[in-house]
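Suppose you are handed a protein chain with no further information: no name, no annotation, nothing but its sequence. What can you learn? This example shows the usual starting point.
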Amino acid sequence: MALMVKNIDLADYDTIFCDSKEALKWAYKNGLNTSATILTSSPSMLWDKNECIKHIESRWSVKELKEFQTSIKKFSEDIYDSVVNISTISHEKAVCISNTAVEFNRVLYKASCLTNNHLTKPVLFISVDGEGGLLGNKMNSPWDLLLANNPYFKKITYRLKNNKWDELSTEGVSILKRVSLGGLETLFYRVLTKATKYIPNIFFKNQVLIPRENEIVIETASALAKSGFWIKKINPNLDVKSKKHNKKYIEVEKNIHSIVEDRVKRWICSNPELLTTCVELYISVVRKTLNEFNLWGDRWKHIDRESFGKKNILLTNSPGNISGIALTEYCRRLGIPVVSSQHGITTEICATQGEISAHYEINVSDVFLSYNFQCADISNKSHFSRGKPFVSGLSARHLRMKDVRKKAIVDFPVVYISTNLYKGNLAWFGTWLTDYHRARKEQLIVINVLSQLPHKVLYKPYPVDNMRFSDRDPVLNDIEELDNIKIFNQKIDMRYLLDNHRVLITSIATSTIVWPVMTGKPVIFINCKNNNPLTKDAHKYFSSGLFLFDDDEEDFHSNLLTFLSQPIEKIEELYELKKESRAIMVNRFFTSYLSGSGDRAASMIKREFFKW
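A reasonable first move is to predict its three-dimensional structure. Written in structure tokens, the prediction is:
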């Protein structure tokens, strides 16, 4: 007999939306028909040989997904152009609206999977509740929002059991290793920022305000501190919860309406109610974002006191979220220059990065500190760019990777540094593959290559901050059945682990590549044609400087297996022959300078903004 859940009889539904094996198992136990069609995006659920479980995203071909992903850039630019000249909308607010345009495509992507039957007939959505990570629970597709006008639609929520989610940490990494990699400048910075919480700054005329940090920010701040600058970490005042921010933005909504409608029409079924729902969903997000933007502006107003009587500069990492953009707008009002730092090497090597150009650091800063001239040039051409780039080079922390010990004897000579991060409902696209197809491609590398090597292999999963799906990655379950591969189960950044291996394998054009390359150890790079592929320019240089394998080549798996089956010493010898080509590659796509990044950036700041 079926269980009544808030007046819902599970046996009444033949079409179910569900992304959790645990939740589905519970539903079966409580009356759901085992013959009901289960629609899911979850790789784990699709792994099972259950004919009733169907891939909701199967309507997407690589060709269509490529068109969808590559057209996001123009959509965000058109939205920006439609609102930036409105008198009440600053450049920063216009950028923020453009960011919502990028993020809206996650909802549109799911909406495009719906048919008229889903919109008019009885369907049940089994959502999940539970811990999700730093950003909270992001495991549920927006089916409840998209199907709200279906009178036969119902939703129930299942509370996950035992879903503890660990965050990235340095637990297990020795203090000596952390200090040796971070350097004295990081130690100096940590001591200084703790001291400035308690010591009055009345004796300092120049002040650096830091809301978010990374390696370059730390090294630049340390160099400025040695020149007599006061370094102060700042945080928003989250106690400010003003209720006055609840406005409508009629002119904004009017200007963006037709642009949004045109994009939605291209991708959804011909259902007028779904079209209206999607457009209204986006407009409501814009309205909410602008009101939150104003609230965040109020939360940063205390820096007026913190900066009073000083000549200030804001030095920050990744200011592209709503809090960071609101802060940069407020700094502009106060006349405080904003200097931002590159977050990672991706813009200069990845062919699909245009999708997120609305999030580039240069869009909301006066000066953007880049690692290399390639990134500086691309950022400078951003449709949303406000500032100018300055090439500082990679951080000393990155450059210290060359000092990673080369052990003669290691337990796992080969490490596979996985970049298989599922999109779920959270990540940007960058790919022309569904999560399920990405999982299958990862599985093939494991089964056809790694499992057949004569070497012991460590499989290092990507350290996910937020859960995409509630079930474990099915690829990991497959690996556990293999004898020569071990999974590294701790959430520790790979930079602290590279001394334990001799050959480093990774894939797709993301910032992960910088740490292995800078060690000088052999790097095997798998270029994925349909998943964050290299640009043509980067491909040419990576082919010369690294061992590059394209996953669309005939005999890709067998060629990779043959190469990796060589003695480790042979692979190291062959890699050494690429040393000169690799130096050219590093100069072009990684760092234009091999030392002094923090000092170089600090000198520019003093010259540009303090007339030293």
